[in-house]
Amino acid sequence: MFKEILIAVTVSIDTYLAASACCCKKIRIPVLSSVVINLICAAVLYISISFSSVLTDFVSADFCRISGGFVLITLGILTILKSFARSVAKRISQNGDISMKLGSTPLAVRLYLDDTAADRDNSKVLTFFEAVTLAVISSFDSAAIGLNSGFHNISPLYASLFTFLCGFVAVWLGSVTGQKISSLKHDFSWVGGVLLIIFPFVL
Fold it and tell me: What does the alpha-carbon distance between residue 51 and residue 48 come to, in Å, rounded to a whole number?
């Protein structure tokens, strides 16, 4: 059960940071949108764990573990780089002499730099479809972790259930502490990247 909870906490870090960013920009996340975000992340995790379990019937488990670990480490490094890019973008936007315009930038890139870009209509409310977009972009971690976890006797049902529940807690915490976290000069999504790198060695 410890492994399933560890997976849920790791996956939910990005959800917490996204909710914190929305809180800082005074973007409200309704209950339905929160359900959508966490349901998609949990579903992606369930499918990826189940898929990796099936792979063991056709591919060597050791090969799958090594390749899955490589994917997680690579994703962790990319997440750390993303955190660095977000910190740079934040400093640029806070500099009165420099303006940073992302309006014509593809949505995926804007979300990469700023989770609040999901509020495309600037309504200050994350709608159902906007929540779907944010969840899909944020589900890469869930997919990578799930593909690696299927070779470690982890229950996809419990892992996805804990992820769904932890996601709700993450959204609530982000809404409560978002102003304080997002007001800091640095982006903390690198924490999730570090956990992704450590994850293959913990399981």
Answer: 5
CA atoms of 121 and 47, how far apart (whole Å): 31
Of 36, 65, 56, 26, give the one whose Cα is nearest residue 200: 65
Give the DSSP letter string of 72-109: HHHHHHHHHHHHHHHHHHHHHHH-TT-----TTS-HHH
What letter would DSSP give residue 27? -
Q: With CA atoms as reference, report the closest residue to 16 among 179, 189, 166, 170.
A: 170
pLDDT in tens, the chain (203 residues): 787 888 888 888 888 888 887 877 788 888 998 999 999 999 998 998 888 877 777 777 677 677 777 877 887 887 788 777 767 666 665 554 444 454 444 555 555 556 667 777 788 888 888 888 888 877 877 887 877 776 667 888 998 999 999 998 988 888 888 766 655 556 667 777 788 788 777 76
Cβ(137)–Cβ(189) below 8 Å:
no
Q: pTM value?
A: 0.78
Contact criterion met (CB below 8 Å) for 48 and 142:
yes
| Residue 124, CA atoms < 13 Å, CB-side half-sphere | 4
Rounded CA-CA distance 78/84 in Å is 10
Residue with tokens 């944020």: 138
| Helical axes 31-55 vs 156-182, angle rounded to 10° | 140
